[in-house]
Amino acid sequence: MLAFCRWLEATPWSIALHESLWAYAIIESAHVLSLCVFVGIAVLWDFRLLRLTLRDVPVSEFLARLMPWMVAGFVVMVVTGALLFFGIPVRSYQSVFFRAKVVMLILAGVNAWVFHATVGRRVVEWDSAPILPRAARVAGVVSLCLWAAVIFSGRMIAYNWFDCDTPQSDLVRTLAGCTDDLRE
Fold first, then answer.
1. What is the pLDDT of residues 151-165, one digit of tens each?
2. Mean pLDDT (whole number) for 160-171
3. pTM (two decimals)
């Protein structure tokens, strides 16, 4: 994977994106804004599952009205995130925080998939339920925790505390995928 990232980083498009005065900043801004849309709605959804907000709004109506916005935010977030990786692939790949973010994103995706494939199929039945199924509430708590971890990890990618080009412990070097040829 590191060899692929090095090849990608050497492509003219990656170099142009990384060295651009405006493109990288605009893409990063779009990424953060779409993250706000997606995660903002996801948090509202999770809070609704936990009955912490919007208690008078039927669950099925909430989904019908906000799911298109959530999907749009997700699509833009993924596209801009891929472009950000494309701009600095080696640094991203060798970031402990990037790796943690990818793991949390995968877990968040699995949580959403399991929810929608199981208990989420009966969402219409919940419209008048005083308390939603335990599995739905658990999925909401897990989602909140995972998205908080994704945001934290994503924000920490910008800092070089664990970069391979600075002295690190063997544990950090292993977790980041550092190789000795980068020290030269």
1. 999 999 888 777 777
2. 78
3. 0.84
Q: Residue-wise over 5-40: b if at least 16 C-beta within 10 A, else e?
A: beebbeeeebeebbeeeeebeebbebbeebbebbbe
SS3 per-residue string spanning the chain: CHHHHHHHHCCHHHHHHHHCCCHHHHHHHHHHHHHHHHHHHHHHHHHHHCCCCCCCCCHHHHHHHHHHHHHHHHHHHHHHHHHHHHHCHHHHHCCHHHHHHHHHHHHHHHHHHHHHHCHHHHHHHHCCCCCCCHHHHHHHHHHHHHHHHHHHHHHHCCCCCCCCCCCCCHHHHHHHCCCHHHCC
